[in-house]
Amino acid sequence: xxxxxxxxxxxxxxxxxSADLTREEYEQVFDTAAELKREFRATRRxxxxxxxxxxxxxxxxxxxxxxxxxxxAGLNQLGGHxxxxxxxxxxxxxxxxxxxxxxxxRWVDGIVIRTFDHSVVTELAGEAGIPVFNALTDDEHPFxxxxxLLTLREHFGSLRGLVLTFIGDGNNVFASLxxxxxxxxxxxxxxxxxxxxxxxxxxxxxxxxAEQNQGRIVxxxxxxxxxxxxxxxxxxxWVSMGQEEQAHARSAAxxxxxxxxxxxxxxxxxxxxxxxLPAHRGQEITAAALDGPRSLALEQAENRLHVQKAxxxxxxxx
Length: 318
Ligand code: CP
Ligand code: NVA
Prior knowledge:
Layout: H1 23-43, E1 55-60, H2 66-77, E2 81-84, H3 97-107, E3 110-114, H4 118-127, E4 132-134, H5 142-156, E5 163-167, H6 172-183, E6 187-191, H7 200-212, E7 216-220, H8 223-226, E8 232-235, H9 247-253, H10 261-267, E9 272-275, H11 287-291, H12 297-316
Parallel strand pairs: 1-2, 1-3, 3-4, 5-6, 5-8, 6-7, 8-9
Helix pairs in contact: 1-12, 2-12, 3-4, 5-6, 5-12, 6-7
């Protein structure tokens, strides 16, 4: 936990995209998260209250279990206060995003937002004078990537040179993992069916970051060709929130993209299964792989709490 005189580079910072943080800033968040995790695991509470008097508004326009609970509980555990705004504010309908931003920054110290269009989050952050924390958009899920990389760092000891292969949709979760992994010198691969790749701008940015940090981004279509030599096989739902009307087409396109024990065997002797959850057992991952001894899914979920606390303490802690 930072000392009172420890004014870090993350003070007052938003987290909108996984490309927003430097390698050093990632390490700073991981170190703070590890310390908060040790303390919380020992006593289920924290000695200090670095968020005392701090209020953070939570806006969720999509469903959530993990993100909502971990932000809300994490803020409260550190002496802060989470205000869940719910449906009642008519976000962007009753009032414009910019009017909401200008009002909220007169009252509270930060905004957590889960929404559809990524531009809403960038607009909110541009208008609000207080930090904005992206709790998932159609384009990115940066706090998920932070938790996932902390999980890999704990499991393998370090991140540089690790190979993570994502099986399935080049979606928001993949985008944030590719950007963060590239920044941290990992090799991030994606096996996706035709027409379900990542946005070209994400691939271009991730490749640029990989180049600068000795990482690598590899895209392909055949999971069996891409997984050998992987340390982790990561998957996510085939139908993300907001894509429900594409469910039928997607379930046909993704057949053959299921993570199972055989694929883990093919990946290598130390390969672990990862999933951001919620999962659909029997679709993107088998029950045996998700619930078996090679799964890191619940460690990832646990680490959401610790990385989010760490980032918020660094950003708005007293
Ligand atoms: N992984 C994740 O973000 O879970 P929720 O959608 O339940 O928040
Ligand atoms: N890609 C999924 C992630 C859920 C945590 C979605 O956006 O619905």
